[in-house]
Write a structure and sequence with these properties.
This protein is α/β, with parallel strands linked by helices. About 50% of the residues lie in helices and about 10% in strands. The chain starts with 9 loop residues before the first helix and ends with a helix.
Length: about 300
């Protein structure tokens, strides 16, 4: 059975494009910009072509074109005009729209072409900060509102993961660690959102530190073994959905007791679950961080 989402409600379009449903309806009625379809039970819906057109219309509108003017253009002319503007300015916004479309169509070629076009003007680091981080934030919200399926999210994150791995391999081939510090990057039990941690691994290696990447869902007890191999350790973890808000304080206390009190190691943590942590009463060797950029700034 095919459960992939290819029909969108007007609320889905609002979530995907940021254009209010009320505005979409006005554009439909006044300018005939979209033509919603109907199911056998007479329920209105929009297809992928409608979503693509609305992205392009919104992009032109944000770049100074009036809706009344856009409505007179043929679909081909709209697409050509978007490409022309994107080649000159607002590259980030256009790229995010292209990546969304690639995700919804499961279109690897569009993903690769969009990424390659960005590389002409941006470094991999800039693409991650300026494109992938905002994109992943939007994708998380779209998943939570059932606008996209987990399959869409996994498709996109797998492709981004490939790019991080490729770039990490490039720098590892030439890396010469010049610090005695060793970073141990891991995610706690049942935490699987590793893209941010993978990018941090890339940055740590790029700054000539020794690093060990353990990845997803690592039990706390298994981390103790690393203490036998290295002296100057910094454990680094990204709490996106785990530990749960009711468990995070206990997790940090347990980490301190099992790992930190037995060594001179530190624990650096970041992620949205830190909002549920009592940051004013942390063990002395637990260091919370607000963002990836904040951690990277401490590597320089």
């Amino acid at each position: 059975m095919n459960n992939l989402k290819n029909k969108f409600s007007i609320k889905d379009l609002e979530n995907l494009t940021g254009i209010k449903a009320h505005t979409i309806r006005i554009w439909e009625k006044r300018y005939k910009l979209l033509s919603p379809k109907r199911t056998d039970t007479n329920i209105r819906y929009y297809d992928l072509a409608s979503f693509q057109k609305l992205l392009n219309v919104s992009y032109l509108n944000n770049n100074g074109y009036k809706i009344s003017k856009i409505a007179t253009l043929k679909q081909e002319d709209i697409q050509n005009l978007v490409r022309e503007i994107a080649s000159k300015t607002n590259l980030e916004s256009h790229a995010i729209n292209s990546f969304k479309l690639a995700m919804l169509n499961f279109d690897q070629v569009l993903f690769y072409n969009t990424y390659d076009s960005l590389l002409k003007d941006m470094s991999f680091e800039d693409i991650f900060y300026e494109i992938f981080i905002p994109l992943l934030t939007e994708i998380g919200l779209l998943w939570q509102t059932n606008t996209i399926t987990p399959a869409h999210e996994h498709f996109l994150t797998t492709l981004i993961r490939q790019k991080i791995l490729i770039n990490t391999e490039f720098i590892q081939a030439e890396a010469e660690p010049n610090s005695k510090k060793t970073f141990v990057l891991y995610l706690p039990d049942n935490e699987i959102h590793e893209l941010g941690l993978m990018f941090l691994y890339y940055q740590i290696v790029a700054h000539d530190y020794h690093a060990i990447f353990l990845g997803q869902s690592v039990p706390l007890e298994s981390l103790e073994a690393v203490l036998h191999y290295y002296d100057d350790l910094i454990f680094l973890s990204y709490f996106t959905i785990k530990p749960h808000k009711d468990e995070i304080d206990k997790y940090v206390r347990d980490f301190d007791k099992l790992i930190l009190q037995k060594s001179n190691a530190e624990l650096w943590i970041l992620g949205q679950m830190l909002n549920s942590l009592d940051l004013d009463n942390l063990p002395s060797k637990v260091k919370p961080h607000k963002s990836i950029e904040e951690i990277v700034s401490q590597l320089k």
